[in-house]
Design goal:
The complex is a heterodimer of chains A (about 250) and B (about 325). Chain A is mostly helical and about 250 residues long. Chain A contains 12 helices and no strands. The chains are: A mainly alpha (about 250), B alpha/beta (about 325).
Chain lengths: ~250, ~325
């Protein structure tokens, strides 16, 4: 466990000595601002069904930031070490593969959590400026950040996996972006084909539809199915990453 | 310290290491020689626990490299060929990180990092970013890293690669100083280095073991003719007279100015004709200003063994 902390510390440091962390942080902050602006303009139009929290996470800007975060946070994790050859130095020290995989993943998850703190501050700011006049249901807030967290776990694991496949960061970023996007579009499929298909098929699609999950959770409804879905797939991709990193031990 | 038995490593159909068997005793410095692509780095990677062999067994410090990989890695200080390092870290910071990975902590870790920085003379660069260091410095940082946990076995892949002659000598002295406590397996292209430093030489070529012996024995085993060089001045036909001496196969002469002749005698292996040459010179009244025997070095051994294996490697 001590080794894990040493590695985690190093990974976090690596994020903050490169400009990447600051660029992503700034980008997400700006887009969060746009999201809030979009939500406020919906509320200005008169009474609405959702709260400010719901509308913030329904803004187009939200999905824009969502897709850029994961490749940017994960692309260098393994690809850079492979390119520099430092994976060889790393694995000739007495470290286990899981310690390396989990420390890299944990570092990206921590940074991901950090990325969303400005948006939470935005809500606090609105609450303070309007002296509590804007309705902000606690359930919606909790649900929103919970689903953001597990969706992050899922997509960051995909990013880790993509990064472990190649020594080229660009390829890693493109692979992780494509996989995340395909998953998202798979879920969006339902709104495209509408109700022309059978009820059971729609139900299946609902299991993977990120837009649906966001809709449910930002309204304050906490459904365990997406939670289990995202975390178990995150574990699957981490296990795959582990196998890829270990592949030098079993590849012929 | 190292036991390698029938070690074989295959990469996608290509044999990198082919049925290699050798042993290294504790306390020895063993030179690992071979042309580029001979399988040196692959063997070293297997021995350092980075990847397992396709077949065969290797034990390091009593631990199997496949089944007890962590124990092997704890007892090996490995320095990869290109000395890959985290370029965004500073030297001291990097060594502290590596020391922590290798299980050192607190005061002991800080003291040890200071020691290896002094040992490898990188203390003056401790605050510099590794990315800005010269090849020589990086090489020595990597060496310092290998020494951190005081491993009983050091596996160094071309440790003098990229160093200038002064630094090469420093590293050689450093390695010599480690001898009683540490066993060292090092690969190199610099043959004089092997001759002056190593107790034993393991040569591989095309993945196969060519030779495993002391440098002196290897030279002795050699079939190549030894040479005797002489500079003589006098009258008469020198080359014919010298070729008549027993053991001399061929003599060639060239003008060295001022009436001096520079002669090179090709002599049968394990023969010494220097006394005979001296006797001949005094009998004929020739002046002598140089007479020495040139023993074949590792270079000749290496070239001969490698070219016997497959002509036209060099």
């Amino acid at each position: 466990m001590r080794i894990f902390w040493v590695l985690l510390k190093k990974e976090l440091r690596a994020f903050f000595v490169s400009p990447m962390a600051y660029i992503v942080l700034a980008l997400v902050m700006v887009l969060n601002g746009f999201c809030l602006r979009a939500a406020l303009s919906v509320l200005e139009r008169g009474p609405s069904e959702g709260s400010i929290v719901t509308w913030t996470f329904h803004a187009m800007w939200f999905w824009l930031s969502y897709f850029f975060i994961f490749p940017l946070l994960t692309m260098r994790l393994f690809a850079e070490e492979k390119k520099m050859g430092t994976l060889e130095t790393l694995f000739t020290a007495p470290v286990r593969t899981w310690q390396v995989v989990w420390s890299k993943y944990a570092a990206s998850v921590l940074l991901y959590c950090l990325l969303w703190t400005p948006s939470a501050l935005n809500f606090a700011l609105v609450d303070w400026i309007t002296a509590g006049q804007v309705e902000m249901p606690a359930g919606a807030l909790k649900g929103s950040y919970l689903i953001l967290f597990v969706m992050g776990l899922f997509n960051l694991a995909i990013g880790c996996f993509a990064s472990s496949l190649t020594s080229n960061q660009i390829i890693a970023a493109v692979v992780s972006f494509t996989m995340s996007l395909l998953h998202f579009l798979g879920g969006l499929f339902i709104s495209v084909i509408g109700r022309q298909v059978s009820e059971s098929f729609v139900d299946i699609i609902h299991y993977i539809a990120s837009t649906e999950h966001i809709r449910i959770f930002t309204n304050g409804l906490i459904d365990t199915r997406p939670l289990v879905y995202y975390t178990s797939f995150a574990l699957l991709f981490l296990a795959l990453t582990h196998q890829v990193v270990e592949s030098r031990r079993w590849k012929p | 310290m190292i036991q390698v038995q029938h070690l074989t490593k295959q990469y996608a159909g290509r044999m990198a290491v082919d049925d290699v068997t050798f042993e290294v005793e504790p306390g020895q410095i063993v030179g690992f020689l071979g042309p580029n692509g001979a399988g040196k780095s692959t063997t070293m990677r297997i021995l350092s626990g980075y990847m397992p062999p396709t077949s065969g067994r290797a034990r390091v410090n009593g631990h199997d490299v496949f089944h007890e990989s962590l124990a092997v890695r704890r007892s090996v200080g490995y320095m990869p060929e290109t000395a890959p390092l985290y370029t965004e870290m500073r030297v001291k910071e990097y060594l502290r990180f590596r020391a922590e990975l290798k299980g050192l902590a607190g005061q002991a870790m800080r003291r040890r990092v200071g020691e290896v920085m002094d040992l490898c003379s990188v203390t003056d660069a401790r605050r510099r970013l590794i990315g800005n260091l010269s090849k020589g410095y990086r090489q020595r940082v990597a060496l310092a890293d290998a020494l951190l946990h005081e491993p009983p076995l050091l596996i160094l892949d071309e440790p003098s690669n990229g160093l200038d002659p002064v630094q090469i000598r420093q590293v050689r002295e450093l390695l010599r100083g480690l001898r009683p406590k540490h066993t060292i397996l090092l690969s190199t292209h610099i043959l004089p280095e092997v001759e002056s430093l190593c107790d034993r030489v393991v040569m591989i070529h095309h993945g196969r073991l060519l030779a495993d012996d002391t440098p002196e024995n290897l030279a002795r085993r050699l079939r190549t003719l030894t040479e005797v060089h002489a500079e003589l001045r006098g009258s008469g036909e020198m080359t014919a007279a010298l070729e008549a001496l027993p053991g001399v196969r061929k003599a060639s002469a060239e003008e060295a100015g001022d009436g001096w002749q520079r002669l090179v005698l090709r002599v049968e292996p394990r023969q010494d004709v220097r006394e005979a040459v001296m006797a001949l010179a005094s009998e004929r009244g020739w002046q002598v200003r140089e007479l020495h025997r040139r023993l074949p070095g590792l270079e000749e051994v290496f070239v001969e063994l490698a070219s016997a294996e497959s002509p036209g490697v060099f």
